[in-house]
Amino acid sequence: KTSYWTGSNRQSLVSVSTMAQPNHRYGGHRDLEAVIDMDQPEMPTAKGGSRFSFTGGLEFTSLTYTVVKKQRGVGGEWEKKDVDLLHEITGYAPKGCVTAVMGPSGAGKSTFLDALAGRISSLDGRVALDGVEMSPSVIKRSSAYVMQDDRLFPMLTVYETLLFAADFRLGSAVSPSDKKLRVDNLIEQLGLTTSRNTYIGDEGTRGVSGGERRRVSIGVDIIHGPALLFLDEPTSGLDSTSAHSVIEKVHDIACAGSTVVLTIHQPSSRILQLLDHLIILARGQLMYSGGPKEVTAHLGRMGRKVPKGENSIEHLLDVIQEYDQSEFGVNALAEFCLTGLKPRKLAAEGISTVSSIPPTPVGPGGEDFDHSLRSQHSKSPWSGAQFTPSRRPRKDQSGKSQNPPRYGPEIVMGTPTPLSSISVYTVNEADYLSPAQRASATGAPGVGINALGHRGKFANSYAAEVWVLMRRNFTNIWRTPELFLSRLMVLTVMGFLMATMFIKPKDNTQGITNRLSFFIFTVCVFFFSSNDAVPAFIQERFIFIRETSHNAYRASAYVVAGVITYLPFLLLQSAAYALITWWAIGLHGQFVYFLVMLYASLLSTNSFVVFISSIVPNFILGYAAVIAFTALFFLFCGYFVDSHSIPQGWKWMNTVSTMKYPYEGLLMNEFGGTRNFSSNPPLDGNAILENLTISVVKDRKWRMVLYLLGWAVFYRVLFYLVLRFASKNKRK
Question: Which residues pair with 266 in a beta bridge?
Fold first, then answer.
């Protein structure tokens, strides 16, 4: 017989027999004081000949999440009150199993999932994986979180979506051929072979089905073989067949060695057969934790009998709702889970109070206490203890059973102990191998902390991240050219209109007015033409949040890749307008400067629009904000009121107006010098600039380009700061 320590303070010991296979070490709860000794001379076996045991997983202890809410007091005044969205939740999610978090609406299922995934900064409690306590940053690196909404690029195929995910998550350590091989295997595993080259699609483009789309979302997050997989309502919005297919694939992922935790609202009977472990919540408190088959026994110990033909889990949810609507509340059921104190019976008509399990013997606390293994009164603490209760009565040397009545087999099998998953999990030799040994034995990458611990915070170098993002951006632009082509078409058409309207202005006062009108209208066209870029980032925001929540790439790499991607397209748009208007109108100065200033104008306005789109919640407010600010920039650019005549309190608006710099720069390029633009009255270029209170210094026009590029950089930096610190899917 071999003994292993299971408590972090080494005060607890589990002794199990090692007749058939070597044992495994687990991390246990700090408060474990009981010594459980269950010798098994004859090891129980499953059909395959393996004994049942537990080989680690995710443990959580005393998880509490408190928020401050405003509520009306007795006198009708608003008062701040601390409210626990999660309250002292302790339990575990076994490795290699699917753990489902269930409960009525408002139970705290999504909040609990966020707590386990490290998405709550002010969480109290402890989360450990395979006995090792994990910080939120470590959880992010070793887990995957599939959101309820499928946020994918609609014009990428299934294969391209998963391949880009492999590039982000696997890094340069894995060769391109190995990445493609892993993607091919994943597509086959998820049942997406027939949809391999189908677009994801959206409302305007026909693509994959809802179930296939959900499986792609799962594949994006598991491409790197995470030790933990969290899914928020993976069956939401799917029909019964698609929902079952999704959970079936999730079950296969769990069987490969991952710890899977998902929230689910109303699973069908077929889906229930795929769930290995249940965690039922209500009002942020734990109502039940154990296997689906043990729910009936749990209800029996409460004094409730499941009606014939009714699902035991649904009946438990009904009981929870009944207590929630009663004067006792769900606290009574939470107390029963924690201490074994049976809840008060409800005197409601039609509710059965006949127990299907014989009552437990009277103990120190009287008849209202449950003395099963999970109860504190049986000296086996509820939270995180690693022990394996025998499925057979313990025998002495004479072969007679020595188990007390309260440890009868029906109670052991019916009690949701921290190891109730023993009824669904079969141990094999691979459970005792290290990730490296498992990889060499099976050829598959090992999962777990050790498998991912060698990686840095990001899988790729900075340059590699930028390159992958650029490739994806170019692919999306090539598949959705509407934004680029529409802007190019607008500038091309406006260039022809301007060229024909202001063609060859004469050298008189009317000609000077026409030139001024052309330049101010050109500046307005270039700034307003970028407003259609408002929805661009708003549509990508949730994809960015999902990808960066697990450190797929850096926020700065996303910003740099976006700038580089649009540089050639903005240059083409500027060149098209400049080539059409320059010679048709007969402009003066340097053509290169004219082109560079138009290019810088597009860069600055694009940066401004992208920044605005990052701080507004939807594109409607985005359009309103961009139009309002553009109108203010137009008002203070110096065309209506020159910069020296603007009231002192508003001069700062002239400085921040990005329209000021292209307007003054283009006029300097056109009128700079001593060329006569009017003979009656005689006016040369410098005189016109002086009348407009614009500098006549020869090289100052290039400063305007630098100022404009400086504003472009400034808005990109603000955009990065918003992405870095304000675009996080994390609760406070």
Answer: none
510 and 690 Cβ atoms separated by less than 8 Å: no
Enumerate residues 6+ apart whose C-beta is below 8 A from 201: 154, 207, 208, 213
Which long-range contacts does 651-660 make (Cβ < 8 Å, 24+ apart)? Answer: 657/632, 657/633, 658/527, 658/601, 658/604, 658/605, 658/608, 658/633, 658/708, 658/711, 659/523, 659/524, 659/527, 659/630, 659/633, 659/634, 660/633, 660/636
Taken in order 647, 650, 655, 660, is the CA torsion positive or negative? negative
Per-residue pLDDT tens for 368-423?
Answer: 444 443 333 333 333 333 333 333 333 444 444 444 333 233 333 333 333 333 33
pLDDT digits (tens, 9 = 90+) for 25-68: 333 333 333 323 333 333 333 333 332 344 578 999 989 998 88
CA 165/CA 247 separation, integer angstroms: 21
In this structure, the number of other CB atoms found within 10 A of the CB of residue 392 comes to 15
Structure tokens at 34: 């009981």
Task: Report the 10 Å Cβ neighbour count for 415.
Answer: 24
Q: Is the predicted pLDDT of residue 256 greater than 50, yes or no?
A: yes
Structure tokens at 265: 């609202």
Whether the bond into 359 is cis, omega within 30 of 0? no
Give the distance from CA 366 to its chain's centroid. 49
Indicate the helix (H) or strand (E) that contains 158.
helix 158-170
Q: pTM of the prediction?
A: 0.74
User: Helix, strand, or coil here: 286?
Assistant: strand
- DSSP secondary structure string for all residues of 653-703: HHHH-TTHHHHHHHHHHHH-SS-EEEETTEEEHHHHHHHTT----TTHHHH
C-alpha angle with apex 503: 502 to 505, nearest 5 degrees? Answer: 75
Domain locations along the chain: 57-68+82-339, 462-728
715 CB burial (10 A radius; 0-12, 13-18, 19+): buried
Pick from 677, 675, 676, 674: nearest CA to 508? 677
Specify whether the CB–CB gap between 335 and 328 falls below 8 A.
no
Question: Which H or E run includes 181?
Answer: helix 176-189
- CATH placement of domain 57-68+82-339: 3.40.50.300
Beta bridge partners of 84: 66
N- to C-terminal Cα separation, the chain: 48
Q: What is the DSSP string of 81-109?
A: EEEEEEEEEEEEEETTSEEEEE-STTSSH
> At 220, which amino acid appears?
V
Give the number of C-alpha atoms closer than 13 A to the C-alpha of residue 484, restricted to the C-beta side: 16
CA–CA gap between residue 354 and residue 612 (Å, rounded): 64
Residue 64: which of 131, 145, 124, 146 has the closest Cα?
124
